[in-house]
Task: structure prediction
Amino acid sequence: MQRATARASALEALIELLSSMRFAISLLTVLSIASVIGAVIQQNEPANAYLNQFGQFWEPVFASMGLYTIYAANWFLAILAFLVLSTMLCIVRQSVPMLREMRGFRERARETSLRLFTRHASLAPALPPEARRGAVVAYLAGAGFRFRIDERENSALIAARQGVAGRIGYFLAHAAIVLICMGGLLDGNLPLALQIKLDGKAPTSGDQPLAHIPASARLDPDSWSYHGNVYIPEGGGTDFAVLNVGDGILLQSLPFKIALKRFHIDYYTSGMPRRYASDLVITDNDSGRSFERTIEVNKPLEYRGVTLFQSSFDDGGSILRFALHDLVPSARPPHPLDGEVGARLPLAGIGYDYTLEITGFRPINVENIAPPGGGGQFGGFFGNGTQTQAGKNLRNLGPVYTFKLRDTAGQAREFSNYMLPLEIKGRKYLASGVRASQAEAFHYLRIPLDGDDKADTWFAIRQIFFDPGRRAALAERFTARSLDASDESGLRERLKETAENTLALFARGGLAAISDFIENTAFTERPASEEDRQRAGAAFIQILQGLVWDAWMSAREASGQDALEIGDEHAPFIRDALFALVESLQYGAPFYLQLTDYKHRQATILQAARAPGKPLVYTGSLLLALGVFAMLYIRERRLFVLLKDDEALVAMSSNRKTIDADETFARHCAGLAAVLGTAHTDSQESP
Amino acid sequence: MKLASSPSSPSLSALPAELQMAQETDTAPAMPSVRAEWLKRRSFGDWFYALALIAAAGIAFLRYGEAMDGYETAILAVHVPLLAALGWAWRPFRPFAAAVAALSLAGIWLYQGDLARAEQIFFLKYLLSSQTAIAWMSAFFFIATGAYWLGLAARSDFAERTGSVLAWAAAVMGTVGLFVRWYESYLLGPDIGHIPISNLYEVFVLFSLVTALLYLFYEGRYGTRKLGALALLVISVSVAFLLWYAFTRGAYQIQPLVPALQSYWMKIHVPANFVGYGGFALAAMAGIAWLPGPRELFAGRLPAPEVLEDVMYKAIAIGFAFFTIATILGALWAAEAWGSYWSWDPKETFALIVWLNYAAWLHLRLMRIVRGAMLAWWAIIGLLVTTFAFLGVNLFLSGLHSYGSL
Result:
C-alpha cells in the first residue's frame, strides 16, 4: 500500500517534472545547441570529407554521436519527442484551471484581497446609492466588458472581464508546437530509417548501372515519406527518384512515370539562368492516364501525393565531336572521335591505354574577363542603382566541355576545355584546364593560334620539337641558320651539339631541367656567379626560341607552305609557343582533345517529395501564428467595482505587467469616477 | 445572490446629462458597441487617408494589374486595410506615407522611363535617384544619432527634437530610395525588375528603416526621446556597414534575381523578417539603457526603468510575432521552391534558434522566473544571436540562402 502511494507520488513527480516550464526550457536549450552544431558541421557529407576535417581520432567519435546527420540522430529525435510530451502534458495540466479561469468572473473576490491588488483605487460616489450600480454597469458594458454581480451584505461586487480570448492563444500556440513536431517527425528521416530496418533495405553504391541495383535498394511506391532527386534527359523518362542515404543511394519508385519532352532555359546577359522549365508528360502507373504539364522553379506539380519540383538542370547526353591531336610523336592527321556526355570510351583502338570519360558540356559560359581588383568606385555609388562596376567585362566564352582521362591503373586527370579561342591581350589561344584531383584548381595550357587562327601550327611545332628522331635535323637547321656556312672553327659542331642537348634536356624536364643543368653541370671549371647563370639562362632561351622558329619553318615546309621572313612580328607567337611547349610537358595527356561540333541535349533535375505530415505542419503553423498574436495582443483585463455605501472600490488585474495596464486602469478609474459623479480620491499603487 | 450580466433595469433617471450616451450604448451588445465606438471616433482625416490608400491601390492595380499575378494582387489589396489601420492607430505615419508617396512618384515621373536621366536631371541626381536617396538616408541617420546624443549629453530638448525630425527624414528618404530603386530595376529590363529586398544591401536599407520606424512609434507612444541615442546607434552601425559594403564591394548594383527568388513570397517573407529583426534590435538597445552601468553613467537622463522594460517587452513581442510569421512564410516558400518546408539549412536552423531564444525570453518574463537586469542582458545577447542569424550565417556557413551572402 505504502509502496503504491510512493510509486504514485513518484509518477506525479515525474509528470510534474516533464510538464514544468524549466524542463521544457532545458530541452529547448539542448535543442538549440544541437542545432548550432548541425549548422556548423555540414550535414550528410561523404565520410571522407569528415575524415579530412576531424582526423582519425575524432571522426568516428563524432560519427557515433550522430553529428553528421544530427537532425536524424536518435538523441535529437528523442529530445523532440520529449518536447512534444512535455508540451502536451503542459496543455493538459493547464487546460482545466485555465478554462475555469476563462469562464469565471472571480466575483467572490474579498474586499481585503481587492485592496491588495497592485492597481486599486477608492472612489467616493456622489450618485445616490440606488443609481450607482446602473451607472457602473452601463459604463462597463460600453467599454466592452462582460460582468457578473455578486450581491453581498451592504455591498455588491461587480466583477467584469474582457479579452479572455487571449488565453485561447495559449492553447493554440502550444497545440501548434505539438502538431508541427509530429508532422516534422512524420516527414523526417524516421520513416525511412524504419523502412531500412524493418524491410531489410540497404543503400547501395550510386556508381553502378541501373540494372545492377538490387531489390534491397529499391523502395515501393507506397513509402511513407521521401525526398529524392529525379534526373531525366530530354526525350527520356523515368519512374523513380534517387534518395541519398549516407554514402549510398536508394531508388524510390514513384506511382507514375515522368517523361521530359523539352527543357527550356533563358539566361540574363550575365550568363545567370533567368528561368528554367521542364515540359513533362506524367503517366499514371495504375490508370495509364497521362497528361502534360510544365513545371518551373517556384511552380511545382502535385500528383498522387507526390510533389515534383524543378530543382536544377544538367547535360542530358549531348553528342560531341572531337578532333584528337596527338601530342606524342606521330605522323597521322587529327583523329576524329565522337562521344556522348556521360559516356566512357576506351581509347585502346586508337593507340592509347586510357579511358575517356566525358563528364560535362555547357554551351554558354559567361565569365568576367576583366582583370581582378577593380573594386568599388566612390562616384558609382550615387545615382541610380544600375551603374556597372568599373572593371567588369562579361563575355560569353562559348562552349566548355569537361572530361576525365583514366589510365589503366585507375588514376584519372580531369580536363576542362574551351571550344572557341580565348582572346587575351589581343592574342588568341585555345585553352585547356587540367587538374589531378577535385581539390585542385585547374591549371591552364594556352595554345597560341597562328595567323590563320588555327592551332595546327603549334601542334606541328610540338611534334617536331619533342620527336627524338628529328632532333638532329632540327639542330642542323638551327645551326645552319645561325652561323655562316663558311665557319669552320668547330663552332658549328659545338652549336649543333648544344642545340641537340638543349632539345633533349627540354624534352626531359622543360625549363627546370635546363636550369638544373646550368646549376650543376654547365660550369665545371669554377663556381658560377649569379651573373653567369643569368647569362647562360638567356642563351638557352635564345636557342630554344630559335629552335621553335626552325621547327615552325620546317612544319610549313612539310605542309607545302612558304617559309616566312624572320622578324619582330613573329616574336609574340614564338614566345607563346615556347611557353605552351613548357606547359604541355605538365599536361598529363598524350593528346589534345579539341571539340569541333556538338549537338546539345539537356536534362532536367527534379525533386520528388512526399510529405504526408505537411497538413499537420501547416495547420500547426496557422494555429501558431494565431496563438502568438492572441497571446501577445489580446489583453486580458479584469475590473472589479465593489459598491459600498460610502465607497466604490475599483481594482484591476491583468495577465501582463505593462504600462498600458496602468494607463487602462487610470482611464477606467476616471471613467467610473465620472459616471459616479466624483473625482477619485484615493488611488493606490502598492508595490 | 448572483445576477446575470445582462443589463438589468437600473434607475437611470439620476444620471447626469452628459452620461446619456452611456445609457444608449448600454442597451447595445458589448462588443459591437466598442467596435462602433472605434469607427465613430474616426475623424475626417482618417477617412481621407483611407480613401487615398484605396485610390492609390486602385491606380496601381489599373496601371500594373496585368503584370501582377493573383497573389500579388492580394498582397496589394491587403496593404490597404493594413496601412489604414497603421495610420489610424499611429497618426504620424500618415504624413510619412504621404511624403514617401509624393517623393517616390516625383522620382518615377522625373525618370520618364530613361535611366540616363539620373545623371541629367538635377532633382534626380541630387535627391531622388535611388542611390542618392539612400545616401541622404545614411546622412540623416548619422546626424540624427549625433543630435540625440547631444540631447542626451547636454540635456537639450531641442537637440532631441532635431534628432527626431532627422530620423523621420531619414526614414522617408530610405523608403523613397527603395521605391525608386524598384522602378529603376524595371527600367534596367522588364525581366530584371523586382522588389528591392533581394540581397544583403537592400535588406540593410530595409532593416534601418524598419528599426527607425519602430523606434519612432515608441518615441511617440511613450512621449520620450531619451531612448533615441541608443536606438539610432544601432541604426547607424547598420548604415555604416551598408556603406562599407557598398563602397568596397559595389553591392549597390541592382542584380537580376535567381529563379528561386522569383516569387511573390519574397514580398511578404522578407519584410516580416525585418520587422522581427528591427524589434529585436530595439529591444536590445532598451536593454542596454536598462543596465546598471549606463543608468549610472547617464543618471536621470535615460527613460524610467518601467518605460524601458515596457519598450523591451513590446519590441520583443512585435518582433517575435512577426518573426513567427516570417519563419512560417519562409517554410511555405521553401516547400514551393526547394521541395521541403524545412531542410535544416543553416539559415533556417538559426531562425529556429532565434525564435526559441525569444520564446524563452517571453516565457520566463511571463512566469517571472527571470527579471530585472537579467532580462536586459538576455535581450542584448538575443541581438547578438539575431545578428549571427542575419549576417554570420551568410558569412561563415553555406547553405540554400546563399543569395544573401557578402
User: Anything to note?
Assistant: Chain A has five domains: 2-99, 113-163+645-684, 199-224+226-316+602-610, 319-452, 461-593. Confidence is low (pLDDT under 50) at residues 372-378 of chain A.
